Amino acid sequence: MQKVFTMSFDPSSLTYNEAGLIPCIAQDEESQEILMMAWMNAESVSRTLQTNKVTYWSRSRQSFWVKGESSGHVQQLIDLRVDCDRDCLLAVVRQTGPACHTNRRSCFYTSIQKDEEVELMQPMM
Amino acid sequence: MQKVFTMSFDPSSLTYNEAGLIPCIAQDEESQEILMMAWMNAESVSRTLQTNKVTYWSRSRQSFWVKGESSGHVQQLIDLRVDCDRDCLLAVVRQTGPACHTNRRSCFYTSIQKDEEVELMQPMM
């Protein structure tokens, strides 16, 4: 990959919504599967970069959410990317076990096909 | 892929934010690259499914945004997926040309590496 420019990174340079959050998509580095989408605040972004453990902000619990801290299904950060509008992040991760709380590898396990929803994958054992 | 259950789909069954929007991630069906993330309302979801042309809701213009309608850089819908919380969509697409308005294939063209931002790809010709 060609490095075209570099500049120093500051989490406050990202665009957050009115709640101070930015969406972050997690993609499996190996399979390239999209695992989940969750939210980060500026401090989550800093912690994720410092620890290489993907750390979201839980909107329901209103607290930091180190992915897999209780379940063991951690996401090791491989690469963190920013989009053109600086209002969405992409975390390329090494996922241990399922990413979804339903025990499926990915949260995106349902497909809409001809007005019907079809389940694409089952929970992991 | 094993089909575990099917049920009829209604766009109003999704969870939208206070502005009536749901984020939608676009992934290239072939390369599996994440191309962009934008927003849909319930009518965008219906139109996308009816036409197989990915149709977002432009927050800046407050209007429907048939991706590529003016640029020709259309996204043909291959599969539309819903996540476990029903508050995020994944559109698997066949992308014509660049997805990003900067003329890059993907909007996620910047990587954060050791407190520095590095450009990963250049605009397409």
From TrEMBL, chains A, B:
<feature type="binding site">
    <location>
        <position position="87"/>
    </location>
    <ligand>
        <name>Mg(2+)</name>
    </ligand>
</feature>
<dbReference type="GO" id="GO:0000105">
    <property type="term" value="P:L-histidine biosynthetic process"/>
</dbReference>
<feature type="domain" description="Phosphoribosyl-AMP cyclohydrolase">
    <location>
        <begin position="36"/>
        <end position="109"/>
    </location>
</feature>
<feature type="binding site">
    <location>
        <position position="85"/>
    </location>
    <ligand>
        <name>Mg(2+)</name>
    </ligand>
</feature>
<comment type="similarity">
    <text>In the N-terminal section; belongs to the PRA-CH family.</text>
</comment>
<comment type="pathway">
    <text>Amino-acid biosynthesis; L-histidine biosynthesis; L-histidine from 5-phospho-alpha-D-ribose 1-diphosphate: step 2/9.</text>
</comment>
<dbReference type="GO" id="GO:0005737">
    <property type="term" value="C:cytoplasm"/>
</dbReference>
<protein>
    <recommendedName>
        <fullName>Phosphoribosyl-AMP cyclohydrolase</fullName>
        <ecNumber>3.5.4.19</ecNumber>
    </recommendedName>
</protein>
<feature type="binding site">
    <location>
        <position position="83"/>
    </location>
    <ligand>
        <name>Mg(2+)</name>
    </ligand>
</feature>
<feature type="binding site">
    <location>
        <position position="107"/>
    </location>
    <ligand>
        <name>Zn(2+)</name>
    </ligand>
</feature>
<keyword id="KW-0368">Histidine biosynthesis</keyword>
<keyword id="KW-0479">Metal-binding</keyword>
<dbReference type="GO" id="GO:0008270">
    <property type="term" value="F:zinc ion binding"/>
</dbReference>
<dbReference type="InterPro" id="IPR038019">
    <property type="entry name" value="PRib_AMP_CycHydrolase_sf"/>
</dbReference>
<dbReference type="Pfam" id="PF01502">
    <property type="entry name" value="PRA-CH"/>
</dbReference>
<feature type="binding site">
    <location>
        <position position="100"/>
    </location>
    <ligand>
        <name>Zn(2+)</name>
    </ligand>
</feature>
<dbReference type="GO" id="GO:0004635">
    <property type="term" value="F:phosphoribosyl-AMP cyclohydrolase activity"/>
</dbReference>
<dbReference type="GO" id="GO:0004636">
    <property type="term" value="F:phosphoribosyl-ATP diphosphatase activity"/>
</dbReference>
<feature type="binding site">
    <location>
        <position position="84"/>
    </location>
    <ligand>
        <name>Zn(2+)</name>
    </ligand>
</feature>
<keyword id="KW-0963">Cytoplasm</keyword>
<comment type="subunit">
    <text>Homodimer.</text>
</comment>
<dbReference type="InterPro" id="IPR026660">
    <property type="entry name" value="PRA-CH"/>
</dbReference>
<keyword id="KW-0460">Magnesium</keyword>
<comment type="pathway">
    <text>Amino-acid biosynthesis; L-histidine biosynthesis; L-histidine from 5-phospho-alpha-D-ribose 1-diphosphate: step 3/9.</text>
</comment>
<keyword id="KW-0862">Zinc</keyword>
<dbReference type="GO" id="GO:0000287">
    <property type="term" value="F:magnesium ion binding"/>
</dbReference>
<comment type="similarity">
    <text>In the C-terminal section; belongs to the PRA-PH family.</text>
</comment>
<keyword id="KW-0028">Amino-acid biosynthesis</keyword>
<keyword id="KW-0378">Hydrolase</keyword>
<comment type="function">
    <text>Catalyzes the hydrolysis of the adenine ring of phosphoribosyl-AMP.</text>
</comment>
<dbReference type="InterPro" id="IPR002496">
    <property type="entry name" value="PRib_AMP_CycHydrolase_dom"/>
</dbReference>
